[in-house]
Write a structure and sequence with these properties.
This protein has 31 helices and 26 strands. A hairpin with a 2-residue loop joins strand 14 and strand 15. The radius of gyration is 31 Å and the shape is globular. Helices cover about 50% and strands about 15% of the residues. The protein has three domains: about 230 residues, Rossmann fold; about 240 residues, P-loop containing nucleotide triphosphate hydrolases (Rossmann fold); about 325 residues, ABC transporter involved in vitamin B12 uptake, BtuC (Orthogonal Bundle). The strands form seven sheets. Strands 6-7-8-3-9-10 form a six-stranded mixed beta sheet, with helices on both faces. The chain has a six-stranded mixed beta sheet with strand order 16-19-20-13-21-22, with helices on both faces. It is of the alpha/beta class and about 800 residues long. About 0% of the residues have low confidence. The longest helix has 27 residues. Keywords: ATP-binding, Cell inner membrane, Cell membrane, Membrane, Nucleotide-binding, Repeat, Sugar transport, Transmembrane, Transmembrane helix, Transport.
Length: about 800
């Protein structure tokens, strides 16, 4: 080891959550140049302790010192001092690219220029592996779990940390990537870095750690020299007693009854798979990841299309979708619980019962007593640590989430149980219970098929093992041949591993999921509609019509920019229309003929001051008061409209001609305000993709918690978005003033829905993280064009609503489908 000074000191830390003392006076320290293993059961406090160290959580008492500097509750300060953390669930923003995630993950002084980010990111990825199958330009949402974890590890290593925290770093990694990780750990510790290694895999901890600290129920159980402890001793320290063995005894299947019969099943990633599972046995699927075993399991669960014959207890099974597969008796325990296993905002009770509601329902009505009773029994049976069954499942530790998902799947009484990584993220004490449950399920007649990246687990749990290579079953191991060595040997000698990357995506859908697709499709729609209108009515292309139409486009586009900025961070503002009307009403008292300059200046200052105040009020309602954005801004909508009607019950207060002439100035037939709107769109678009502010906006909308962990001040960003939206609405009211000419309290109402429609048609995500200001401009142009064209074609005003509604539905459906197709399964 290098210089033996403390790089991380945690002294007497206590952390309390509602109903739970997660940490109780815990002391922990790590030396420069050492790997310090941190082990314990799920809920023991390991991840909580590291969250406190990283500043993500603030403890009730205690102190945290990083490289001789005390810090507390400040993630950015912890990063600046040199602490980097790889979390059990990667803290990545799915709508950002790999390069953008790596950029935000760096301390400010270590970041490259944004123009050079992609090349820099690809270089960092190559340092992990020369043949890494991850493109820095790809969005994180298109990566599979293994690739996301590699990006998270690369992000931490790229920061050149003094203290590196690895929380379950190998759960999604293949064997060769585990070897790469251990090599990098050795390199960084040789350079003097301190590494905290958190894992349930005791063998890995013994292999890599110098010292080991054990936590149990939020309390420290001592720190030990790793070389001086056996695996059994570590297990006993973790669980607080002796644990005789990890796997239940196998029972030889005497029954000739076939529960599951698969004949010549073909699908994406595998072909011609034939297998049978008899009553009482568990069959394992093994192979290098990407060789068809998980794809085969997904097809059996109805998640992907397949062809072939599948019968369950003699009945033909339908695999057309997951619902049909479940009706046929086939259920899946997903390997990626965060994306496919849990409903984060629902309670423990609801997450448990949702897969087996018929057992609690009478004529469609849920019996809550029955539901609660079964949920409590499952929590006790699976030793799920939770304050109550009404606790949101997202607040539970990863292993406890996994146990509850397993309990939920088993509660549906499946005839075929598909298990992907049965003990992923589960502590050593709970694994044996899960193995017993799976063995009991097989003994009672359920066909159990398991996939695991741990060959020892497959060998200890399964009666037979099928080895997959390039989508085919190439070998079967039975009885005494089922061993860790035989499985590993069969996997490694069956075939060379093929290149891995994201799932194959049809070129059209890959293009449609990108940022340019909405712009191209919108531009095409605008041209086609314009040419058709010009063909039907020559007056459509007259200078008078075009200038009037383009002025309306500019007004809608500018307010749509504000809506777009807010939707990028996951918000929405229903009050923009009444705010625009209020701006015009206010100006109708000040911008009159004969008004002195000071009077007019007061009107402008007051108008924009009101806009800032409205943005601030909306932010307060949404962030500190935690109201839903639609509820908060709907309240503001009604308040602003009421104020406008009080000030001007009927339209009045003519705007001076000098202001109307100035605002309505044209360059040829093109309004100056349209040129301003176009320039503004280009500037905002450039800032969105080429500035840190734009990156922060997209990051917050993509995943706020991950952005916060990356050091982004999410509340400040939200404040800027709400005030910016209101200011842009105020700017948009200026050209609207020239169109109405007086203080009309109802002038801006239609702009609320129109601005949202323009942004949605322009390719924005309703959930945040994606959008385009140029898309909002083109969306505005298309909406105004539709309104004008319907008038020229004399087909009735109702068609404006029909066409606008149709465009919104088509846009949302197309963009949603394309992004769904581009997401790794």
């Amino acid at each position: 080891m290098n210089a033996q000074h403390l790089l991380l000191q945690i002294e007497g830390v206590t952390k309390i959550f509602p109903g739970v003392r997660a940490l109780d006076n815990v002391t922990f320290s790590v030396l420069a140049g050492e790997v310090h293993g941190l082990v314990g059961e799920n809920g023991a406090g390991k991840s909580t302790l590291m969250a406190v160290a990283s500043g993500a959580l603030v403890p009730e008492s205690g102190r945290i010192v990083i490289d001789r500097t005390e810090t507390r509750g400040d993630t950015e300060a912890a990063r600046r001092l040199g602490l980097a953390i790889v979390r059990q669930e990667p803290a990545l923003m799915p709508d950002l690219t790999v390069a953008e995630n790596l950029f935000l993950g760096m301390p400010a002084e270590q970041r490259p220029t944004l123009m050079n980010t992609a090349d820099w990111a690809q270089q960092q990825l190559r340092q992990w592996s020369d043949d890494v199958a991850i493109d820095a330009h790809e969005r994180v949402s298109s990566l599979n779990p293994e690739q996301r974890f590699i990006v998270e590890i690369v992000k931490a290593l790229s920061a050149k940390p003094k203290v590196l925290v690895l929380d379950e770093p190998t759960e999604h990694l293949l064997a060769e990537d585990v070897a790469r990780l251990f090599d990098r750990i050795c390199r960084v510790t040789d350079s003097g870095c301190a590494v905290v290694y958190i894992s349930h895999r005791i063998r890995e901890v013994q292999q890599i750690a110098n010292r080991i600290t054990v936590l149990r129920d939020g309390r420290g159980q001592g720190t030990y020299d790793a070389a001086g402890l056996s695996e059994q001793q570590i297990v006993e320290l973790i669980v607080g007693g002796a644990l005789d063995r990890e796997f239940p005894a196998k029972t030889k299947a005497e029954s000739a009854d076939t529960v599951l019969d698969v004949v010549a099943l073909d699908g994406v990633g595998f072909s011609d798979v034939t297998m049978r599972v008899k009553r009482g046995e568990i069959v394992g699927l093994a192979g290098i990841d990407g060789n068809g075993q998980r794809e085969f399991m997904a097809a059996l669960a109805g998640l992907t299309h397949s062809r072939g014959t599948v019968t369950v207890n003699g009945r033909a099974a339908s695999l057309r979708d997951s619902k049909a597969a479940a009706a046929s008796g086939i259920r899946l325990l997903p390997g990626d619980r965060h994306r496919a296993g849990i409903f984060g905002e629902l309670s423990v009770r609801e997450n448990f019962s949702i897969r087996s509601l018929p057992f609690d329902a009478v004529k469609g009505w849920v019996r809550q007593r029955s539901e609660a009773r079964r949920a409590r029994e499952a929590v006790l049976s699976f030793a799920v640590k939770t304050p109550s069954i009404e606790t949101p499942i997202r607040s539970l530790s990863g292993g406890n989430q996994q146990k509850l998902v397993l309990a939920s799947v088993l509660a549906s009484r499946p005839e075929v149980l598909l298990v992907d990584e049965p003990t992923q993220g589960v502590d050593i004490g709970a694994r044996m219970e899960i193995y017993k449950v799976l063995r009991e399920a097989a003994a009672t007649g359920t066909a159990v098929i398991a996939v695991s990246s741990d060959a020892l687990e497959v060998a200890g749990l399964c009666d037979r093992v099928l080895i997959f290579s390039r989508g085919h079953v190439v070998k079967e191991l039975r009885d005494d041949a089922v061993s860790e060595n035989n499985i590993t040997s069969a996997v490694l000698t069956a075939t060379t591993e093929r290149a891995r990357g994201t799932a194959s995506i049809p070129p059209f859908w890959k293009w449609a999921s990108g940022d340019w697709a909405p712009l191209v499709m919108l531009a095409l729609a605008v041209c086609v509609l314009g040419l058709y209108a010009a063909h039907v009515n020559d007056a459509y292309l007259s200078a008078r019509n075009l200038s009037g139409m383009l002025a309306l486009v500019a007004t809608l586009a500018i307010v749509a920019y504000g809506q777009q900025a807010l939707m990028l961070v996951g918000g929405i503002d229903l009050s923009v229309g009444p705010l625009m009307g209020l701006m015009v009403v206010i100006q109708s008292f000040y911008l009159n003929d004969g008004s002195p300059f000071s009077h007019e200046l007061t009107g402008w200052i007051l108008s924009f001051g009101v806009a800032i105040a409205v943005g601030l009020v909306n932010w307060v309602l949404v962030s500190p008061f935690r109201l839903h954005p639609m509820v908060a801004t709907l309240a503001t909508y009604m308040s602003l409209q009421a104020i406008s009607l009080i000030l001007r019950p009927v339209p009045g207060g003519l705007i001076a001609n000098k202001w109307l002439d100035t605002i309505g100035a044209q360059l040829g037939f093109v309004p100056i305000i349209l040129i301003v709107a176009v320039v503004l769109a280009i500037v905002l678009e450039f800032a969105l993709f080429r500035s840190r502010t734009g990156l922060v906006f997209r990051g917050v909308g993509s995943r706020p918690e991950a952005a916060r962990m990356a050091g982004v001040r999410t509340q400040l960003t939200m404040l800027g978005a709400y005030i910016g939206c209101s200011l842009l609405a105020a700017i948009a009211s200026v050209p609207m003033m020239a169109q109405v000419g007086s203080g009309d309290p109802n002038a801006g109402i239609n702009y609320t829905l129109a601005s949202i429609a323009a942004v949605v048609i322009g390719g924005a995500s309703l959930f945040g993280g994606r959008g385009s200001f140029i898309g909002a401009l083109l969306g505005s142009l298309l909406i105004i064009q539709v309104n004008v064209v319907t008038s020229f074609l004399d087909i009735g005003d109702a068609w404006q609503s029909y066409l606008l509604g149709g465009m919104i539905l088509i846009s949302v459906a197309l963009y949603s489908k394309s992004r769904e197709m581009a997401v790794a399964k």
